[in-house]
Amino acid sequence: MRVQSVLQELKDVNYSVISEYIIRRISEYITESGKNGGIIGLSGGIDSSVTTVLLSKATQNYFILLMPSSSTPQKDMEDAKKIINMIGANNKYKIINIDPILESFKNEIKTNDKLVLGNIKARIRMILLYAYAQIMNYLVIGTGDKSELLLGYFTKYGDGGVDILPIGDLYKTQVRELGRYLGLPEDIVTKPSSPALWEGQTAEGELGVSYDIIDAVLYLRVEKMMDIESIAKELQIDTEIVHKIDRMIKTSQHKRLPPEIFRLSGRAINSDWRYPREWI
Hints:
It is built from 14 helices and 4 strands. The chain is mostly helical.
């Protein structure tokens, strides 16, 4: 089985059923949480564009923040505006340039490290989303997909700091197909993924592997539970690539879980005792 055959298997799902389910669950979760609606950060990339469209179908009570910085490509802002026009949300969004906020952090911590500053950008956006969410009594709607979540390719307490992840069980390949099903412009559907935390950053460039191979490996490793050597043989790729992706899954586990509570009692939170996620 080669990469494209695996990707085709991934793509062969019913996007009508999936979109209807996600829309219904967003609506239910907002109600169950006692909130009035949802707020979302829209970057103009495929993940946030798809999630924004789904949110707009789930509730009339939504709001969109566009939070560009100096490293945000103009094309991303133009694409974000396309989505806003597409869903008729011209009175439901606000643009906040985060550069002045970032500058105040730079003055305090005195660094130009692009990774440190990039993560601060993601966390500034999280703070703004939660501030508006509190004002409006809305939930913060996350936009991460399954590929990024498994790889840990997100900022802890940044874009990972959200209330729900509606497309978090869809691989990037499937999110692109869902975007196509929802009628998103093709240039957004096929645009290379990038958090744009610094100029020229692309997800595939940073990860060093194409999303086609990443998704094929993740699918066989997580869904089919195949071992590393069998995956490399099946996809006809170097074993080290599979090892690299597997290491990323393992080393990022802490980003997907709540903080560890060291067990001292017989009923430690999360280990032995949990409230139900939904009270109603």
